[in-house]
């Protein structure tokens, strides 16, 4: 398989040294062990997930490899990037992006309680962006929880990870059966009554559990430590995870909308992005977008032009990397062009002949010419269009340094 073809780390110190500068165990789960590795050949730090294939059928192994293939095709700033997969005699090795900040669940334990309201809103916004992207491409995660949300080194950015229960809607289940963690599971998932569309609404329930955990510092259904007891409670009653009454009203409304027992009544990710709970995030996002779009903004800034999300498949998103062109450069006096280069700091002017030449009179040196913006193709989505400013990290993550 293309992409990741590095052999499995050997137990021999000599051989291991040839492949990795460092190899450190950072996690252990039901599926396997995760290591932080530094590639000797490239110096790149990656996370290597070793899955023990003993006891797995050929079909199950093929399903796991298919999962990694699907994830490798996804590229989004809030989804952990997969590099590739390699099948060995007794293991599967999945190479993926390393997130040095650890998991959200570990961070909540470190804080020792709930996160600040603004940090919770910031993380919720980013998590919803990831979920919205997956659902727009007909993919359900099926195991959203704080342990599967990873943080950057400065804790300003989060990414959704661990797609062991991933399902691509409309195709064969990548990993079938009852998947997920009971305390975060939607009732219909435990009952196995969900439809194909229901998988995405089940993600919304799990997302609500994760947001509630950030708001309270408590695991959903924490009063039921036994997973089987929790599962029974979830399916045998009309109750939902306990939501403290002292939370802000917008936060209560947000999580309660995710906890609708009827999946059809739950909002989509795009709806939640427009909720009252995230109003302050949208407001700050809008103000930063205005700052980026101002005439003083550099048209070739990496922050403005970088493409944040795509999928390497026939359903690839429209290229949004087109740069603005200065108006009527061909018709400008040379002195005017020198003035622009000197005073507006535009280093790369593209020449495009205007259909109807316009004669421009020389202007004073302190007069600025506003850059003409090109129209950008729109992206179709299931309900809410993904914002075109997702390509700007500073805009999409408005609270880059929230307080703990």
UniProtKB/TrEMBL annotation:
Domain Protein kinase residue range list: 20-278
Record Pfam families: Pkinase
Biased composition range(s): Polar residues: 307-319
Domain of life: Eukaryota
One GO MF term attached to the UniProt entry: ATP binding
Gene3D superfamilies: Transferase(Phosphotransferase) domain 1 (1.10.510.10)
Region feature (Disordered): 1-27, 286-404
Sections of the chain in a coiled coil: none
Keywords of the record: ATP-binding, Kinase, Nucleotide-binding, Serine/threonine-protein kinase, Transferase
Protein name as it appears in the record: Protein kinase domain-containing protein
Organism: Aphanomyces euteiches
UniProt lineage: Eukaryota, Sar, Stramenopiles, Oomycota, Saprolegniomycetes
């Amino acid at each position: 398989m293309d992409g990741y073809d590095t052999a499995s780390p050997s137990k021999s110190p000599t051989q291991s040294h040839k492949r990795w500068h460092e190899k450190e165990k950072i996690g252990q789960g039901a599926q396997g062990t995760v290591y932080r590795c530094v590639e000797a050949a490239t110096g790149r730090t990656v996370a290597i997930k070793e899955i023990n294939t003993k006891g797995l059928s050929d079909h199950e192994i093929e399903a796991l490899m298919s999962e990694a293939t699907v994830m490798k095709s996804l590229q989004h700033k809030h989804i952990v990037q997969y590099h590739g997969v390699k099948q060995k005699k007794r293991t599967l090795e999945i190479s993926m992006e390393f997130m040095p900040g650890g998991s959200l669940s570990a961070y909540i334990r470190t804080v020792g309680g709930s996160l600040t309201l603004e940090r919770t809103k910031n993380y919720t916004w980013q998590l919803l962006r990831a979920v919205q992207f997956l659902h727009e491409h007909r993919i359900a995660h099926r195991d959203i929880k704080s342990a599967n949300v990873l943080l950057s080194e400065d804790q300003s950015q989060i990414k959704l990870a661990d797609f062991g229960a991933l399902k691509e809607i409309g195709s064969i289940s990548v990993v079938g059966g009852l998947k997920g963690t009971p305390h975060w599971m939607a009732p219909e998932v435990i009952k196995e009554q969900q439809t194909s569309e229901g998988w995405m609404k089940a993600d919304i329930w799990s997302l609500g559990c994760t947001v509630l955990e950030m708001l309270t510092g408590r695991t959903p259904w924490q009063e039921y430590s036994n997973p089987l007891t929790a599962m029974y409670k979830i399916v045998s009653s009309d109750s939902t995870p306990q939501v403290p009454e002292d939370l802000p009203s917008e936060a209560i409304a947000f999580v309660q909308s995710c906890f609708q027992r009827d999946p059809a009544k739950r909002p989509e990710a795009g709806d939640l992005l427009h909720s009252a709970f995230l109003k302050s995030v949208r407001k700050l996002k809008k103000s930063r977008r205005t700052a980026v779009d101002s005439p003083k903004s550099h048209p070739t800034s990496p922050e403005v032009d970088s493409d944040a999300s795509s999928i390497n498949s026939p359903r690839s998103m429209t290229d949004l990397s087109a740069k603005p062109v200065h108006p009527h450069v061909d018709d400008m006096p040379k002195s005017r062009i020198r003035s622009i280069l000197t005073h507006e700091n535009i280093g790369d002017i593209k020449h495009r002949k205007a259909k109807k030449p316009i004669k421009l009179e020389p202007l004073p040196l302190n007069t600025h010419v506003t850059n003409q913006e090109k129209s950008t193709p729109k992206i179709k989505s299931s309900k809410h269009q993904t914002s075109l400013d997702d390509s700007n990290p500073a805009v999409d993550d408005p609270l880059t340094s929230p307080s703990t």
